[in-house]
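Minutes, project check-in

Agenda point 3 was the complex the collaborators sent over. CS summarized: two entities, 605 residues total, and the question is how they sit relative to each other. Sequences were read into the notes so everyone works from the same version.
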Amino acid sequence: MSSAPMSISHPRLPRWAPGLVGVMALALAGLPALLSGWGLVKWIVAAIVVFLVAMPLWSRLIEGRRAAVDRFVTALIWTAFAIAVSPLVWLLYVVIRSGAPAINGQFLSVSMLNVIGDEQGGIFHALIGTLLITVAAAVISIPIGILTAVYLVEYGKRSRMARVITFLVDVMTGIPSIVAGLFALALLVLLFGTAFRAGIGGSIALSLLMIPTVVRSSEEMMRLVPDDLREASYALGVPKWRTITRVVLPTALAGIVTGVVLAISRVIGETAPLLVVAGATDGVNANLFDGRMTTLPVFIFSQYASSTPVGYQRAWGGALVLIALVMVLNLIARIIGRIFSPAKGH
Amino acid sequence: MAKSIDVSDLNIYYGDFLAVEGVNMTVKSKSVTAFIGPSGCGKSTMLRSLNRMHEVIPGARVEGKVVVDGQSLYDASVDPVAVRRQIGMVFQRPNPFPTMSIYDNVLAGNRLNAKKLKRSDADDVVERSLKQANLWNEVKDRLSKPGMGLSGGQQQRLCIARAIAVEPEVLLMDEPCSALDPISTSAIEDLIHELKSDYTIVIVTHNMQQAARVSDDTAFFNLRAAGKPGHLVEFNPTRKMFSTPDEASTEAYISGRFG
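CS then shared the predicted structure for the full assembly.
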């Protein structure tokens, strides 16, 4: 009995085929672009459409149907990726281009106190304000958030109490930030009188926004710790609280740190609640518990609202510093995560 | 130091579901007792009730008595944490702590309980435990490496070392060899023989030959029917069990005619 050879090979396009088609698509779309004076965006969109048609077509002729579909979907996914990334790249580009000229040693080290008109001002007061208020918010929300997660995962399980807490945390996630600011303001006014303004009020407002994120991410991370490890610990006669502090939390630490930093990144750019409760000032105020305090977002807002060229410049510079701050935070979180993540070495 | 265990009229529930029914047996001190039986007949549940580990699962509870060294384990005044310090356990799947090195894994029972050990004492405990678990030669040069980096069989021996490092009175083993190769299995069986002189050992196994090789007494568990609770069919010295069992179903199971 004779059998036909197995057909496991078929002709393949060379590796440089997508590149070639890409260049040709750009050229082809460039023709009408030049003639009718399209902008860059229109030109690239047209080129992508040409590529999406040409590449699968060529592949269909040489490689067969399945490979053509593969090429088409691959191209679609790359397009989607480019669409998703381009706003980020663009944003970074614009912020750096507009903000970089504003940044110099003095910009980072002086406040806006007694700065009149076009004189060189600075963001030192806003930097101090942002750091203090955010750190205080983290100090309030990290313990509350992690302990809530510990209760939900280790003690509450499926109890009624745990379900109610989970529901309330979900509701808290949806609180508009301005409402959190008004709540903090109302709290301070109730406690200390109507004229009272302090940075700690901003921290309270931000912690309201942070706590749900911290709870949710810590909860997810702790649920990922296998029950095997808890049982191993119990079987050694380790009490539950030590099992949680010495086994569960360290195992989940990398993920918890990432969640906490994401929560901080989310609130560090908040403007509205801080404007309401911490107010704005031109001078440095390092006392969280008394007096108005400016943060970077509020500084950016007020400089932009001044509608002067110098104001715009300062606003962009502040924005660049804020983005850099968030990026540094993320880097730190990654490093901490790397250090504490369960080792897999041999 | 080893203790005997008396079990009388023990019923074990998961919520409303009766998993194991009416068990009576006496586990002799300084001996090895094997639990055999088909899957799902409650061997592991029974084993976990001996150091109150089954309570970790929500809704699990027992009726009846488990008496170790004259003390009833399920008295209201008994602290389950204290019970587990005396009655150690090795699990079916190796579960070293991923954040700890090999060295710290062996010492986990001490470290997690915040017991202070002198460096030299700690070194001694680690070396002795790893030697007993037949792992010392393979890991002595990389004690500071993470325990998760070991192979499955090595991880299981690490877990055994961790369990015996706290010197429990009783050692419960839940199919400890199901993830091991024959050489490691044989090493564990040798270890069980050695430990027998100091500890009381209860082992769940699916391997008849292993039960015959290592145990002094054997308990055969079975289900009357699917969905019914497991129960103890026969409890006898291993030699008698494997030659002239009292029950026909025991012989059928041991000779491989069912289960």
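Noted in discussion: The mean pLDDT of chain A is 90.
Follow-up: revisit at the next meeting once the mutant set is ready.
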